[in-house]
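Fold it.
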Amino acid sequence: MHGRLATVTDRRQALRLRRLAFSLLMGGAAHTLVCWLILQWGFFRGGAAVFYPLFGTIWAGHLGLLLFARTGLNRRLKNPAMTEPVMIWCIVTLLASALYLDQGRLAVMAFFFAILHQGVFRVRRRQVARAAALAVAGYALVLLYLNARGDLAQPLLEAGQWLLFSLVTLAMVLLASEITTIRLRLRERNGQLAELLERIQDLAVKDELTGLYSRRHAMELLAKACGQARRGAFLLAVGFVDLDHFKRINDRHGHLFGDQVLVRFAELTRRYLGDKDMAARLGGEEFLIMLPVIDMEQALTSVERLMSALRAQRFMAAPALEVTASVGLTVVGHGESPDEVLVRADRLLYQAKAAGRDRIITAGPP
């Protein structure tokens, strides 16, 4: 169980790393290329002396985030995918480069929509709204700062571009909100379907009243266990259990009380049988138990402990009632089929009932 959980965790971490690498490396490369072209056309303020240190710092940040995730430190975060921190970092890099552009500022800020697209399917709507507010407000502050310095050649055109950016961002946020609502509904429906599937699976393999395995599933498990026993993996003890005078209990105390007795016996099997043992309800008051053991003596000791616990049970609705059971107990012989084992266990059970009930009759393979 622990190994499977670790494998799933490692796969999730590998997926996070791939997504993070794609977002930072591909997005960072596209951002860098556009700004480098603007540099070549002579519209990057400060020229190469500003461009290379700025993008060196930006790429150091990208690689730092990747290294943080690669070392596994992201697993300590509330959101190990780091979607919102990465979105904020990428928005800051766009705004930092926008400070030095004389032309093409809107083209660079348009990369924000790719950033927003990455977050729509992974974060909540309020986180998308925060990212949008940061981009719109940051873009406005960049324009105000440059205008105050007299570095905006066409303030009205820049203001119009900012307004266009803001309107498109608003539309994206509204769309993202609708997508998030749909995503949450799908997640809720998937959760309901998973619960329903688990319920159906339980009904297929477990008895609804007692929670023990059903007869059909017990037969499948018995066939597998007999195969393993034949290969010498272990010695398998098989027992038929029948609660004594159960019809009398139902007639005197009612079927609801009878159900309580069955449930109590099922609880005792879970408490007194081992982790590798198995119990199933075959129907009515009949049960099947399977115990991987070293020898018959060990199996007999386990079943006697279970029967003693059953005898000691007391019920508020019938304080004087003592519930007992008859058991036919055997072990699987070399080359025996499940049907042969069940026939012998059933015969031993009837011998126990014929001998006066409340006893365990044992026999090895012929």
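The longest helix spans residues 155-205.
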